Amino acid sequence: MRLLTILTIAYFSCSISGAKISCDFFKTKNPQKQGSKNLGATNMYRIAGLKPALLTLAIDFFKPLPTLYLSTLVHMTIEQQVSVCIACILGHIAPIYNYFKGGKGVATALACLCFMTPGIALLAVVYWLASIATTRISFVSSLLTAYSALLWTIMAGYDHAIVIGYACIAFILTMTHLPNISSSSALLSNAKSR
Question: Long-range contacts for 180-186 (Cβ within 8 Å, ≥24 apart)?
């Protein structure tokens, strides 16, 4: 019962959209109707600029932390905390307040990494920055970072629950980025056929 309660709080609290709040605060165009139509920081940057994107990023990053902190106060196991992380990410990706259409889950996933494995999270941030500087493609950098974080947890000998949880998170992020992958594949195919 306790786990179900925390999972419910995690999902509903992380269904709050940073992009929608940012849109209302800065009076920008509706991100659900502009750009990639995605409720995330990258799309907000694309359609409205740096400040709305940063506010979106901050909200999406910090919104899972109260629930995750609550999970420690009630002495949840690592396995339970990992499930709370996944509920937070699913809340962001499929928010009940926005007809189950949310963001890609990257910022919220990073917050979960910071909470569960701060050292891995620090490596992930450095790796993402290096990757985005090299590729200039947000989704490529995000997916490379997600799978690298999974590899690092395996190499560092983290608890199997964290490894399995990070594998699930990497898979979820891959699913949310499938449209990006498909678009890039189509562009590459068109470029080769010319």
Answer: 180/139, 181/139, 184/137, 184/139, 184/140
pLDDT at position 12 is 97
Whether the Cβ atoms of residue 142 and residue 173 lie closer than 8 Å to each other: yes
pLDDT score for 36: 86
Taking CA atoms, 162 is separated from 70, 84, 137, in Å, by 18, 12, 28
Crossing angle for the helix pair 78-93 and 65-73, to the nearest 10 degrees: 160
The helix (H) or strand (E) run that includes residue 142 is helix 138-155
* Token representation of residue 117: 């494995």
Exposure of 78 by Cβ count < 10 A (0-12 exposed, 13-18 middle, 19+ buried)? middle
CA atoms within 13 A on the CB side of 105: 30
Residue position matching structure tokens 């209302």: 24
The span from the first CA to the last CA of the chain, in angstroms, equals 59
Residues 55 and 25 sit within 8 Å (Cβ to Cβ): yes
Q: What distances in angstroms separate CA 15 from CA 19, 87, 91, 96, one per listed residue?
A: 11, 10, 4, 6
In the chain (194 residues long), the average pLDDT of successive 10-residue segments reads: 94 96 94 90 94 97 97 96 98 95 95 97 96 92 96 96 97 94 66 52
